[in-house]
């Protein structure tokens, strides 16, 4: 695998060098300075009109009126790269080589071999992200090629961060289901820190160079920060070993609350984003407005469902204390078995009417989705379980904020 990675690295370097060679040897009709002067002369009258408050809000989202230098540089670069088919092939080849190298490096040094579940989730995220951003750009801009190129580069950067962050979250789920590991995986922690730092850096770059787009793009950065921050908190709780069951269960409760807060922040930010897009696009009868309305309805529904799940969780915590007694030390010694849910030794436990013992946090998570004993499958009555138990398991499937914003097609 390491040898293949070296080959991919060499090919990526070669492809990038060939692209640079094509770029420098393109022989454009005008030098960059000449093109920039001509471009700025064309933009200047429109900028003066913009100062007279005659530019609509939607038109003000173009970079042309904020940084004519950046606009001219992008226009000149596009003219060189897209001037003939060899330049376009060189650009496509370099992009494929660099993306392939990054993917294999992450698999080699951070994630290891991906499971089928992780691969399928990654493909779903890519498809949903691309489709959503196409709708977003179409609703936001009557774009020139220069604007489209800038938005594409920025969204590719945010998309890469979002994809790797989602893969890290899936990988954490696999780690939780695998046998206990000795200590933290610092490469995984380092990746999460790099993702959060990159999201902050992208936000700063958008503020400095893409000020008109900052209101839209800062939501992308904040969403990634909340999502990766949630994964980092959960991983810290997972790897921070302790011999005290009470401490672990209290930490589990804190992680649930942290997940709720971050997911709610992501959903609220996304709802604001959709509302902003609807304001930019206007209330018109077209497919873009219909999709935006549908997604606003979906996010509102998910906010309600998330709130209901937190209320159910709090009721579960309170109900566990009075409906199922704590097992005494003598009962735990007599039981002489592990918790059948997590397969860990019992130090403290809750006792069901069928006399089986389980960790409090394990039993709570189980009873939110099932109305039976995990060991003997004895049915628990409504009086035993309480009003917080699930009556619709599909409504209580594990959900994460950054995936919820792209799950509109699956909501009722």
UniProtKB/TrEMBL annotation:
GO terms for cellular component: cytosol; ubiquitin ligase complex. Keywords: Endoplasmic reticulum, Membrane, Metal-binding, Transferase, Transmembrane, Transmembrane helix, Ubl conjugation pathway, Zinc, Zinc-finger. It is found in: Endoplasmic reticulum membrane. Pathway: Protein modification; protein ubiquitination. The chain crosses the membrane at residues 6-27, 91-111, 148-165, 186-207, 213-233, 254-272, 278-296. Residues 339-377 form the RING-type domain. GO terms for molecular function: ubiquitin protein ligase activity; zinc ion binding. Belongs to the HRD1 family. This is RING-type domain-containing protein. It comes from Coemansia spiralis. The lineage of its organism: Eukaryota, Fungi, Fungi incertae sedis, Zoopagomycota, Kickxellomycotina.
């Amino acid at each position: 695998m390491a040898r293949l990675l070296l080959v991919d690295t060499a090919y990526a370097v070669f492809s990038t060098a060939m692209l640079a060679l094509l770029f420098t040897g393109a022989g454009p009709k005008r030098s960059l300075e000449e093109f920039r002067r001509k471009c700025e002369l064309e933009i200047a009258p429109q900028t003066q009109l913009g100062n007279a408050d005659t530019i609509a809000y939607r038109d003000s989202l173009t970079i042309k009126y904020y940084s004519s230098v950046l606009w001219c540089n992008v226009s000149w670069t596009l003219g060189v790269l897209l001037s003939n088919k060899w330049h376009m092939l060189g650009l496509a080849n370099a992009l494929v080589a660099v993306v392939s190298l990054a993917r294999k490096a992450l698999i080699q040094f951070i994630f290891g071999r991906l499971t089928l579940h992780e691969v399928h989730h990654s493909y779903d995220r890519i498809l949903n992200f691309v489709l959503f951003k196409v709708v977003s750009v179409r609703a936001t801009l009557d774009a020139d090629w220069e604007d489209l190129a800038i938005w594409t580069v920025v969204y590719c950067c945010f998309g890469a961060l979002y994809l790797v962050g989602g893969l890290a979250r899936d990988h954490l789920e696999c780690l939780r289901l695998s046998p206990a590991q000795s200590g933290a995986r610092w490469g995984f922690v380092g990746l999460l820190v790099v993702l959060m730092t990159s999201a902050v850096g992208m936000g700063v770059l958008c503020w400095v160079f893409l000020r008109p787009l900052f209101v839209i793009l800062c939501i992308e950065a904040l969403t990634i920060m909340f999502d990766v921050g949630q994964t980092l908190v959960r991983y810290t709780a997972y790897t921070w070993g302790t011999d005290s069951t009470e401490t672990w269960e209290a930490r589990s409760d804190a992680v649930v609350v942290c997940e709720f807060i971050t997911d709610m922040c992501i959903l609220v930010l996304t709802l604001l984003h959709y509302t902003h897009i609807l304001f930019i696009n206007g209330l018109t009868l077209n497919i873009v407005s219909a999709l935006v309305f549908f997604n606003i309805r979906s996010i509102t529904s998910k906010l309600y469902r998330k709130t209901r799940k937190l209320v159910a969780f709090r009721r579960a915590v309170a109900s566990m204390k009075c409906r199922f007694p704590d097992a005494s030390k003598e009962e735990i010694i007599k039981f002489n078995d592990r918790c059948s849910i997590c397969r860990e030794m019992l130090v403290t436990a809750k006792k069901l009417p069928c006399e089986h013992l389980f960790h409090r946090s394990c039993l709570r998570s189980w009873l939110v989705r099932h109305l039976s004993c995990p060991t003997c499958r004895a049915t628990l009555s409504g009086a035993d379980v309480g009003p917080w138990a699930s009556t619709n398991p599909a409504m209580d499937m594990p959900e994460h904020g950054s995936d919820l914003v792209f799950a509109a097609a699956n909501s009722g």
